Amino acid sequence: MHPSHNLKGALLALLSMGLFATHDVVVKYLGAIYTPFQIVFFGALLGFPIVTFLLMTDDEEDNLRPHHPWWMALRTGLSVVIGASAFYAFSSLPLAEVYAILFASPLLITVLAIPILGEQVRLRRWAAVIVGLAGVLVVLRPGQSPLTLGHFAALTVAVSGALNSVIVRKIGADERSVVLMLYPMFASFFVMGLILPWVYRPMPVTHLGLMAVISVLGLTAGYLLILAYKAGEAVVVAPMQYSQILWATVYGYLLFGERIDRATMLGAGIIIASGLYIVFRESRLGASGNRPVTRTRGRTETVTAPRSSILQRVLRRGSGEADL
Predict the structure, then answer these.
(1) Is the pLDDT assigned to residue 86 strictly greater than 60?
(2) What's the pTM value of the predicted model, to 2 decimals?
(3) Over the stretch 256-271, which tens digit does the pLDDT of each residue have?
(4) Residue 187 falls within a domain, yes or no?
(5) What is the number of domains present in the chain?
(6) How far is CA 46 from CA 16, 51, 148, 211, 249, in A?
(7) Are 299 and 241 in contact (CB under 8 A)?
(8) Host domain of residue 111
């Protein structure tokens, strides 16, 4: 591939990650006022027009019943947990600290791909996973710093997001993209709707507008990430996700008065180094059959930021291709 294509892919990915970080800033702002249940509810509500449009344009002759109901049920449940946990983590922890913990997700994808995808992980990648998880402990500092519900929420997102990504890799080729999006969105809307009467706070029009901004940012960032992977190689584009720590540092300092401490910097560095090693290891010819990390395009999915790989398949409908 021509070097200019990789440069274009890297720049598009950097822009995508900047928009994702901006998405999280708005979530953090609203999270200081509303519970994550209310934010997820309205996020799902605003997402229904998108799914309706996809239903109208999908010419595939099939129903909305999943071909893998148990895997889809697990994916749906995980998506509900991820949405509420992610928004709570961003609301209660410094942005950089949340990202540092979420960066463990590619490491966990490597592990979960063994039983679910039949992936073979050799000693070097196992060593990278162990070192990376040690970096998570450096960030959390158990015994030295109190662990809060926000830390638990971020860890929940990292683990659940990794499992969700591997599930989509396993069943994505057999399921309609609309089904993959519709079930988690409807479940989030229904579950959060049951909780909403107990936690609801009236939202002015400006805050409803910010909810719409979150959805637009999530979709735009996902689309740019699709373009990035089309333009450049995965080994170049995938590491750009770690640029979110830079956005988090700047946004956190300027908007919320957050300062990244040494432990978070050190732990994030260890996690990123381990993740980069796994990405480059997978990208070597013959190093991996499934390459679950480099083919897991995008970051952790929420109702306001659907998986870019699913959006990609929607945009490529009619070509007969699927890259999940």
Answers:
(1) yes
(2) 0.89
(3) 999 888 899 999 999 9
(4) yes
(5) 1
(6) 21, 10, 31, 8, 29
(7) yes
(8) 3-315
